[in-house]
Amino acid sequence: MLEHLQALPTDPVLGLAAEARADSNPEKVDLTLGVYMDEDGLCPVFAAVREAQQALVAEEQTKVYMPPAGDEAYNTGMRRLLLGGDSRVLAEGRVSTVQTPGGCGALRLGSEVVRAASPGARVWVSDPTWPVHIPLLGSVGLEFATYRYYDPASHDVDFDAMTADLKKARPGDVVLLHGCCHNPCGADLSLAQWAEIARMADLQGFTPMVDIAYQGLGDGLENDAAGLRLLVERLPEVIIAASSSKNMGLYRERTGAVLFVCEDASHAANSTGHALAAARRCYSMPPAHGALIGGRILADTRLESAWRAELEGMCTRINGLRVSLRSALESATGRDYAFIEREKGMFSFLGLSAEQAQRLRREHSVYMLDSSRINVAGVNAGNVEYLAASVAAVLGD
Ligand code: PMP
Catalytic site residue 28? Predict the structure, then answer.
């Protein structure tokens, strides 16, 4: 039977990351994957994670299955982190939460619930968006529509084009929004723009689904959730897919949550029921390790403040890298790279052609996607000048 399968092409991002790993040039610069890296090029384990993990291992009595909705301490902590401790919808009991295998699992369960509630739903995705959104949501059987988002000329959000396209979203449709640190472009909505999206959702009856995988890595934990909180405050219904991969560094532990903010508690409970049924069809119970660690951190004031401080350090470092990258590129090329400082989070497009990105790999061992999306967190004091000189070389400056 299996001999009938055709070989599939490798995933373009993972394939490129493997190519970068195999490159033996000591000067190589790997900016492919969306993984935070420190000055030594390592993706560190947070000190709070290490501590919570040690306590967990020392105290763990059983490996019995997790409850279907996951760890309650983690889910409670995530609700507070995403919506704010004083959130009205939390007090009103209008939010239900299911712990998922990473943000991917949250997107998948969220889409399953959308499909159950509105089988003809179209999901509106930004152009561009994280490419994995399409197979992840599409495999549930949902249709897609695209809204224009990023203007390569201004390196900014083209909000007029975005709202012109979203005028066509109907009741029962879902608009997928990046909560912060847009992947791949780094250009985020202003609070006034979030307010306009909330007004349109209210008027037109579409449901926002907010994918928030980088909270705390753009402008701090609270500011990065401000747009999401505004939607939740003003609308009867918002779906949230959250990840602890980046902001807790729990990537391989597959830790995330899907939240359903609904008009009332019974709709929230029904949404959870459908999410749990979908989980049962796919993988049954969620993984334990990451959520038990995250839950311990978020339930312990001291550990939480240590985690927050370390995350703030990463955020400050990324924003500092944006300043030094801008300056190095401007000196090497004489061009304007102010947009790199304006953008948020781990990603930016450098504005190169696919051919230039390929030459960077071939001739300079500098690895970025063909779209010229870079992981800013892969830049460091030791490679920034080489990176800028390589970019200048392929630009012909
Ligand atoms: N959404 C976006 C935009 C992402 O970039 C990612 C991770 N690259 C995710 C969701 C999901 O992350 P994970 O499943 O690793 O938690």
Answer: no
Residue 270, domain CATH = 3.40.640.10
- pTM to 2 decimals? 0.97
Cα–Cα distance between 78 and 301 in angstroms, integer? 14
CA distances from 61 to 57, 199, 287 (A): 9, 50, 16
71, 121, 246, 279: which one is catalytic? 246
Q: Which of 271, 299, 327 is the last residue of a domain?
A: 299
- What tokens appear for 58 in the block? 């020392």
CB-count burial class (<10 Å; 0-12, 13-18, 19+) for 396 = exposed
Q: How far is the CA of 131 from the centre of ligand 1 (A)?
A: 10
The per-residue DSSP string of 118-141 comes to -TTPEEEEEES--TTHHHHHHTTT
The answer to whether residue 298 scores a pLDDT higher than 70 is: yes
**Ligand 1 centroid to 256 CA: how many Å?**
9
Nearest 5°: the CA angle 80, 125, 17 is: 85
Per residue in 152-173, pLDDT (tens digit) is 999 999 999 999 999 999 999 9
H-run or E-run covering 270: helix 265-282
* Residue at token pair 């990023």: 150
